[in-house]
Amino acid sequence: MSEPASAFERPLLSPFNVVAGIIVLVGLWITYLRFTGGLGAVTNLDQNNAWGFWIGFDLLCGVALAAGGYTTAAAVEIFGMKKFHAALRPALLTGFLGYSLVVIALTYDVGRPWRLPYPFVLSPGPTSVLFEVGACVLLYLIVLFLEFSPMALEWLGERRLRRILVRLTLLLTIFGITLSTLHQSSLGALFLIAPSKLHPLWYSSYLPVFFFVSSVAAGLSMVIFEGTLARRSFSDKMDDEHKGTADAVVLGFGKAAAFVLAAYFAIKVFGVALDDNWGLLGTGYGLWFLVEMIGFVLLPCFLYLVGTRDRNVKLIRWTAFLTVLGIVLNRLNICLICFNWQLPAQDRYVPHWMEIGLSVFVVTLGVVAYRFIVTRMPVFYEHPDFSEGH
Amino acid sequence: MSEGFHSLQEFLHHTKGVLYLLSVAYLIGFVFFWRYLHDREREDD
Asked: Do residues A134 and A119 lie in contact, with contact meaning Cβ atoms separated by under 8 Å?
């Protein structure tokens, strides 16, 4: 099943292409405004709110939702769960694209993006949490690129380089998991510097642990969610192994996600207990916290539990979507909604429409790249010329 | 911090005590969680 002809026979003016084209044009226009007029031309950022929607959504949500790469790699390569093997390549691809988009979005958000390499070559700041995040994301992006490369090399018919990379798989997986553990938690550690700005119900000295544990749930749920979408759009690109193990992947990952969400709920409750914040639960922010905790952590945990027990694949697929929403809500709460919560209403940050527009542009780039790759490269199927080395 | 605490020691004594109770409750709850998740598999076996 190499490069089915249907991959190239789709009409150019399909509804997807038209909508994506419009979004890309608007995105390019915003890009022009951003790099000619500066951050002030397209954002509502100010001295009180230095981090806005691009950091909250593109970076924090992007990194968390790209965690499917290391969670699936850990399951398959480290824990030997070979029954999930078919999910590995799509998960690695999603991870690679996710991190690439994070870096692209970061070049918009950083005031002088051409200075991004400075911490590595000119003035290292190894005592900074942000340095660790930057270093880990850079290294992990390289690892993901190397893990993704065999798909591209099989497509190009390059045997020698592919064989070398396949032999490095275990080493790359271990390196990738180590880097992910570090920077997923460090993204939470970034907020430890702002205890007076983040609402006490979201602030905790355990924020790094919260971020890491929730990233595992996000990764597992994203693999299920992405698999659901791929099954609808690219089922003609999937081989029998992929189709045959799809339900096993959903059930296995759903079960794991139920455990992780149960643990995450517990440590979040422990966080409230340790800071004795029970009294805040009756406030407006407290009710919002309960919405997040019950509606987007406890409820998905319960639904995963029921879905796994009853082998209800459809329920698990919907629950994965709910969990992904919950992770997005959590990151936006920490970075935007519950940040600077004590400021008067007129000083609170509300994203400019162009900030949201640019995020839509970045996500669209990811979808287009994903579509380009899965319609050409062996992501959902084994390349017949390379089936021995998977 | 609640108004009833007069020292850090009192605060930690209280919060750690609550945390230990919650941990025990979680561990007991986890047993039921595990049994609920796996009893269907046992029935199938």
From this structure: yes
- Taking an 8 Å cut-off on Cβ atoms, the answer to whether B15 and A275 are in contact is yes
Task: Looking at the complex, report in whole angstroms how far the Cα of residue B17 sits from the nearest Cα belonging to chain A.
Answer: 9
Closest B-chain CA to A262:
B30
d(CA B38, CA B19): 28
Quick one: closest CA in B to A271, which residue?
B19
Interface ipTM: 0.86
The answer to whether residue A262 sits within a structural domain is yes
In-domain check, residue A23:
no
CATH of the domain at A313: 1.20.1630.10
Instruction: Tell me whether residue A271 is in a domain.
Output: yes
**Phi-psi region for residue A204, left (φ > 0), alpha (ψ -120 to 50) or beta?**
beta
Task: Specify if A251 maps to a domain.
Answer: yes
pLDDT by 10-residue block (mean), chain A, 390 residues: 51 86 96 94 92 93 93 93 91 94 93 86 84 90 94 91 92 94 92 93 95 96 94 88 89 95 96 94 96 97 94 96 97 95 92 96 95 93 72
CA distance B28 to chain A (A): 12
Q: Which residues of A238-268 are buried (b: 16+ CB within 10 A; e: fewer)?
A: bbeebeebbeebbbbbbbbbbbbbbbbbbbb
Q: How many domains does chain A have?
A: 1
> Domain span at residue A301?
50-353
